[in-house]
């Protein structure tokens, strides 16, 4: 058995770790020492606790939303400024983020924080990068609340050298802690209580955070960028006109009432929530992809070099004002289709900016915001965030408002994460495509198993590795568009529309007209059948291609007329599941091309299983 040292593979500069890294020899002797098993005198738990092989974290949650705070073992973040380090992490260290965010160590709602002991802002005590399943955000309120407590409680002076400078206010016990986030300086206030002197750690300043008091923070100024914008979202049922606002709360959000997405006031039942998530993700991708809206995502000044200029997510609201007697519920769907379990701190800043701009909030007036978990969490002592506009500011031409956000966070555990050298799946981790997840491209790896393919779905910052062999069932559109139902573990059944990624190279074959009563073609998928390159010579000529299940799958035709052949080993007819594997025909599909040399294709999850929402016949 062999282990990697921390997460550091020495393919990046990693000298000078923040922690002492023991040599792996002392803990996990390797083959060179003629000993391949762990030291028998040491149990597995103790060995995992070694700095040599482990990335260590402290895990917290803020109203249910996780923050995995890395305390040691991560490669050094190089760069002069926090934004430089963010760029470096994106470009050079991304697989380490994936290891901690993706399965098997994380999940599709995982969130994390990488601390920067020496920030570049003169007033900052510490810096931070926020990580999620898609990349690196620019601001995060729930993680700031968690970090507020963690940074008061940690005794690690390597991780947080400036902790020694912190002093509680002698009357209130509140400590003021400045955290430099990628969006700027976030002033955080944490209520503390004294530690009895007998318990005091030698480096401690004799205080600890008070779990019963909310952590408060003042983020960078928030802006209501534009109200009552309109667009049209392409749902499987047809286009849906949507009116929404755009606001900045350290990151840019679309803010939209649930009713605009064709949902009840606030959809917190699981079935409606999955619809809400899908539609919010579609709104985000529609707005982000529409050049009309691009100028709205421009942070004033040049200091941030465009690093903040992107739409982070959509906040679906009940359209309430957030009066303390009637908290406003919302769901933040960010970074593609990740669901914020908390009321979203940066989203609260953005929402308060909109309420203020619309005259629905005044300076000093506290508003209360919840998530789909808040009603449950409140029973346990806190599930809402408060947002108060405290000051107006002007940045460039824009009128902004500084918002104070308050919420509570709790410790949920500590972690030690390892990667065995032989573990190819766990090396970067994997990500099961979430229902409604919008992905930009799919790469079909050139390795196949009979009737199944292994999928790697990628876009600029993602790499979704689907760990299981996936069965593909082509479903022909009458006008040639192609849908693929991908069976994942039997319960997730998204339907993919596959588009060719490269520009067309050959003339379109003639399409046959749709049979009467057939569904209308999906505009996104219609061009799949056209302009396919000529079929490449088959390396498997004379043999039965394992991929012929999807061969010619773009040829326009109605399903009942598809001739079926029976591959060896399978009977014709029989149960439905088998029949789907027998689908094949003449012209190559984009999937065939993917089989020969890895090729990238555009892909969008257009539908997930769900009752009553099939395309109308
Ligand atoms: O509280 C927040 O601001 C964050 N929670 C997840 C998405 C946002 O970054």
TrEMBL record:
Pfam families per record: Pro_racemase
- Write down the EC number: 4.2.1.77
Q: Where is the composition biased (Basic residues)?
A: 576-585
Question: Which InterPro entries does the UniProt record give?
Answer: Pro_racemase_fam
Give the span(s) annotated as Disordered: 497-591
Q: Which reaction does it catalyse?
A: trans-3-hydroxy-L-proline = 1-pyrroline-2-carboxylate + H2O
Q: Name one GO molecular function term.
A: trans-L-3-hydroxyproline dehydratase activity
Q: Locate the compositionally biased regions of type Pro residues.
A: 504-522
Q: Which protein family is it in? A: Belongs to the proline racemase family.
Q: Which PANTHER family match?
A: TRANS-3-HYDROXY-L-PROLINE DEHYDRATASE
Q: Per its record, how is this protein called by name?
A: trans-L-3-hydroxyproline dehydratase
Q: Which organism is it from?
A: Jimgerdemannia flammicorona
């Amino acid at each position: 058995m062999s282990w990697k040292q921390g997460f550091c593979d020495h393919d990046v500069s990693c000298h000078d770790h923040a922690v002492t890294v023991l040599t792996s020899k002392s803990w996990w002797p390797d083959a060179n020492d003629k000993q391949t098993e762990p030291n028998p005198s040491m149990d597995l738990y103790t060995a995992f606790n070694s700095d040599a092989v482990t990335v260590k974290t402290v895990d917290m949650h803020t109203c249910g939303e996780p923050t995995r705070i890395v305390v040691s073992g991560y490669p050094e973040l190089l760069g002069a400024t926090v934004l430089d380090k963010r760029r470096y992490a994106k470009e050079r260290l991304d697989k380490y983020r994936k290891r901690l965010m993706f399965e098997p160590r994380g999940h599709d709602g995982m969130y994390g924080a990488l601390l920067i002991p020496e920030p570049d802002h003169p007033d900052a005590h510490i810096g931070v990068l926020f990580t999620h399943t898609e990349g690196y955000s620019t601001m995060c309120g729930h993680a700031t609340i968690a970090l507020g407590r963690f940074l008061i409680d940690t005794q690690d002076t390597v991780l947080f050298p400036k902790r020694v400078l912190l002093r509680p206010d002698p009357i209130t016990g509140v400590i003021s802690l400045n955290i430099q986030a990628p969006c700027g300086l976030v002033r955080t206030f944490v209520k503390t209580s004294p530690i009895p002197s007998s318990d005091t750690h030698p480096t401690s300043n004799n205080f600890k955070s008070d779990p019963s008091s909310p952590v408060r923070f003042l983020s960078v100024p928030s802006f209501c960028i534009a109200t009552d914008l309109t667009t049209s979202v392409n749902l499987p049922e047809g286009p849906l006109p949507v009116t929404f606002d755009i606001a900045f709360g350290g990151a840019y959000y679309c803010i939209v009432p649930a009713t605009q997405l064709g949902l009840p006031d606030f959809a917190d039942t699981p079935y409606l929530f999955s619809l809400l998530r899908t539609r919010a993700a579609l709104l985000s991708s529609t707005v982000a992809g529409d050049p009309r809206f691009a100028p709205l995502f421009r942070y004033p000044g040049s200091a941030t070099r465009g690093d903040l200029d992107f739409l982070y997510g959509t906040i679906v609201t009940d359209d309430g004002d957030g009066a303390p007697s009637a908290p406003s519920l919302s769901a933040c769907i960010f970074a593609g289709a990740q669901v914020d379990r908390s009321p979203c701190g940066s989203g609260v800043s953005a929402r308060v900016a909109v309420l203020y701009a619309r005259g629905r909030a005044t300076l000093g007036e506290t508003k209360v915001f919840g998530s789909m978990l808040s009603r449950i969490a409140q029973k346990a002592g806190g599930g809402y965030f408060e947002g108060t506009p405290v000051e107006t500011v002007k940045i460039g031409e824009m009128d902004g408002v500084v918002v104070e956000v308050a919420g509570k966070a709790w410790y949920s555990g500590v972690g030690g994460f390892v990667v065995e050298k032989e573990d190819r799946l766990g090396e970067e981790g994997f990500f099961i495509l979430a229902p409604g997840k919008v992905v930009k491209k799919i790469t079909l790896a050139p390795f196949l198993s009979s009737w199944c393919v292994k999928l790697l779905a990628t876009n600029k910052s993602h790499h979704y590795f689907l760990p299981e062999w996936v069965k593909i069932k082509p479903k022909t559109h009458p006008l040639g568009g192609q849908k693929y139902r991908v069976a994942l573990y039997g319960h997730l059944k998204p339907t993919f529309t596959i588009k060719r990624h490269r520009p067309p190279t050959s003339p379109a074959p003639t399409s046959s007209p749709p049979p009467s009563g057939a569904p209308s073609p999906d505009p996104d998928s219609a061009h799949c059948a056209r302009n396919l390159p000529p079929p490449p010579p088959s390396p498997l000529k004379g043999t039965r291609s394992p991929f012929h299940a999807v061969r010619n799958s773009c040829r326009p035709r109605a399903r009942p007329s598809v001739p079926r052949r029976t591959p060896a080993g399978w009977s014709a007819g029989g149960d439905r599941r088998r029949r789907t594997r027998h689908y094949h025909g003449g012209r190559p599909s984009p999937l065939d091309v993917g089989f020969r040399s890895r090729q990238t294709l555009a892909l969008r999850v257009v539908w997930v299983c769900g009752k009553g929402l099939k395309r109308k016949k």
